[in-house]
């Protein structure tokens, strides 16, 4: 799903990520798992964290976005990278310049009743669920408060994230609003495009980790649509945890997420641990799932980038540590390539100059995914 990712970039990114995590930052997590790990992470990312304010003029979140949310990954032109309007597979229908209108920028507090009027600040977990704009530092936290198109933000309203097969509204880039088709919830939801579902999931899990010690105080603000469950440990309702686990697995950490994490750390002095260590998502929350729910996720596997452009791609999903071989079939059923390797050590696949077209990838653990070669 993530484009512009190659083996070389992946290796360089891993090195950069390691180098920019402060020495010893996560040392106290050694040997921990489950909710004990989550609680320790809460202590680490809360200690010394700064509240820089919501911002007015070019301060607070506005100033953070100057470095945290510039597009050097898709159009690569330094415009604001808005996950609700970004088109990963082609030129954006519209783009926003960082800064106030007085200096030629497109930030705003209010906008027009259509897309492409301006960008504002979006709480990926709606602020009504934790007390509103005066509930700080939550309302000002750049790890989950992002720049977004004003109108798409308004269409999101206070809906939780989810998946829909019957959208009632679709944005320019494919973001949807509609009735939830994901098991466990039937209300209206907001579904971002696949490219950013993992980003969103890791932001949500950051919230219930960073504010673990305050989760019970949010109880008075809960409605039927809120995904918060009122507990200190799990944090979210089970259906929402299942959704976030699925998205985190299908859309792995990207160079863009890593760069954003580093930029926010430079400002707020805390990090999103699930970007630095995505394996902690499963270590903390998979144990909360039933056997049937875990089995269903274990059958889920994805390929990224997809379409494949340089004969190099990656696998993501649960259970890959047990995979020892992958077979690739053409649509007419011919076996065109077999890859035997330790997927616990590397999730990267080198294709053998496959012709352009659509293929089916199957693992020896009975998982499968569609593979498109360009």
TrEMBL record:
Residues 303-373 form the Secretion system C-terminal sorting domain. Residues 1-19 form the signal peptide. It holds the Pfam family Endonuclease_1. GO terms for molecular function: hydrolase activity; nuclease activity. It comes from the Bacteria. InterPro entries: Endonuclease-I (IPR007346), His-Me_finger_sf (IPR044925), Secre_tail (IPR026444). Keywords: Hydrolase, Nuclease, Signal. Belongs to the EndA/NucM nuclease family. This is Secretion system C-terminal sorting domain-containing protein. The lineage of its organism: Bacteria, Pseudomonadati, Bacteroidota, Flavobacteriia, Flavobacteriales.
């Amino acid at each position: 799903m993530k484009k512009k990712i190659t083996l070389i970039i992946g290796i360089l990114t891993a090195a950069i990520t390691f180098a920019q995590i402060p020495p010893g930052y996560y040392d106290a997590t050694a040997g921990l798992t489950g909710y004990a790990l989550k609680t320790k992470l809460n202590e680490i990312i809360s200690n010394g964290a700064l509240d820089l304010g919501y911002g007015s003029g070019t301060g607070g979140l506005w100033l953070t976005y100057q470095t945290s949310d510039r597009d050097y990954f898709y159009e690569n032109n330094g415009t604001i990278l808005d996950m609700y309007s970004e088109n990963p597979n082609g030129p954006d229908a519209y783009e926003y310049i960082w800064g106030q209108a007085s200096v030629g920028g497109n930030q705003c507090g209010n906008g027009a009743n259509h897309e492409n009027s301006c960008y504002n600040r979006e709480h990926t977990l709606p602020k009504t669920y934790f007390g509103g704009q005066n509930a700080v530092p939550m309302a000002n936290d750049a790890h989950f408060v992002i720049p977004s198109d004003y109108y798409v933000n308004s269409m999101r309203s206070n809906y939780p994230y989810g998946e829909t097969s019957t959208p009632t509204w679709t944005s320019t880039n494919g973001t949807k609003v509609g009735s939830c088709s994901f098991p466990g919830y039937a209300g209206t939801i907001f579904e971002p495009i696949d490219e950013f579902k993992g980003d969103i999931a890791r932001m949500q899990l950051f919230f219930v980790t960073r504010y673990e010690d305050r989760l019970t105080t949010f109880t008075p603000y809960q409605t039927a649509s809120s995904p918060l469950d009122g507990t200190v440990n799990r944090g979210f309702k089970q259906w929402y945890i299942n959704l976030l686990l699925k998205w985190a697995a299908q859309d792995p950490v990207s160079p863009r997420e890593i760069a954003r994490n580093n930029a926010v750390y430079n400002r707020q002095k805390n990090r999103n641990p699930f970007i630095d260590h995505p394996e902690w998502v499963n270590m903390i929350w998979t144990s909360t799932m039933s056997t049937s729910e875990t089995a269903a996720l274990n059958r889920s596997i994805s390929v990224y980038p997809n379409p494949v452009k340089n004969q190099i791609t990656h696998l993501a999903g649960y259970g890959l540590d047990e995979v020892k071989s992958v077979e690739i079939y053409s649509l007419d059923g011919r076996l065109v390539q077999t890859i035997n390797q330790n997927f616990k050590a590397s999730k990267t696949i080198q294709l053998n100059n496959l012709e352009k077209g659509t293929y089916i990838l199957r693992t020896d653990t009975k998982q499968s995914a569609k593979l498109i070669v360009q």
